[in-house]
Amino acid sequence: MKVTGGGRNVGAVAAHIAYISHHGGIELETDDGQRVSKAGQKELLNDWHLDLSAGQYRPAPRSAKNSVGGIKLVHNIVLSMPAPTPSDKVLAAAKTFAREKFGLKYRYAMALHTHQRHPHVHLVVKAESLDAPRLHIDKAMLREWRQDFARMMRDHGISANATPRAVRGHSKGAERDCRYRTRRRGSSFALRETVEGIARELATSGTIRDPAHTKLIEARKAIVAGWLSVAALLDHQGDAALAGEVRQYVGNLPPVLTDRERIAVELARHARTQRPVRTRADDVIHERTPERTR
Fold first, then answer.
1. Residue 23: left if φ>0, alpha if ψ -120 to 50, beta else—which one?
2. Mean pLDDT across the stretch 250-271?
3. Residues 57-67 pLDDT 10s
4. For residue 81, how many other CB atoms are within 10 A of its CB?
5. Would the CA dihedral through 79, 81, 83, 88 be positive or negative?
6. DSSP code at position 89
7. Span 181-191, mean pLDDT?
8. Residue 217 pLDDT > 80, yes or no?
9. How far is CA 126 from CA 30, 84, 229, 243, in A?
10. What is the pTM of this model?
11. What are phi and psi of 279, to 5 degrees?
């Protein structure tokens, strides 16, 4: 589960609704059980009265250069499971999740996507409600939601857990939906500037210095210590085989890399692949050249 952003004006919300419906190719399902086709999307948004939301008219801070005005009118949420989880189970759990968390409080619409390897549900939730406080999603709430969604998947017969990303050894977070899509079509100017800056730093110093690396290293040390404590406990309980698997898992954790360091690694790999490949014929020519010049 991840929150991928949220539209700050009616046009942005309409564009996201069109995107998750595959521009009308997939019907949306709403909080009141209605099925919405492409023709009904405008009516759906009108019914949500987003143009009356207070966030629609909040100005951008004067001190923030190039900042985006307003606050979120909706929250874009993705509930997903890895392949080969049956898509109908994911949809059923997503419906239960949406009903328990937002039913009778916040308007929402959802769409199931099965065109990728992992089935997932896009959920758009209106941030404001007449009968509840404005919906604000923080990290603690998101952790709780992930645990609840995993429980709901188990209720539908699917083995699922909500292990934090860092505990699994992954340091890269999820990209915001708009950034992910611009990256896929190669139109992210921010990414281009980042890559060019990293390339210049590599050319100048041969390395990348990222202050975030130290924080990730400290987090990894704490995680490794926690896993080793689990292994020690398993040893004490007489389960040496499982303790060995835990230690093997710790030994195979991926390296700690920040986003900038990960890009630097990709640049270095690309540079290596672009170098001309030496062949045996090249070596023979190189060896014989001095003989011809004597």
1. left
2. 79
3. 555 455 444 44
4. 22
5. negative
6. H
7. 54
8. yes
9. 11, 31, 43, 46
10. 0.58
11. -115, 170
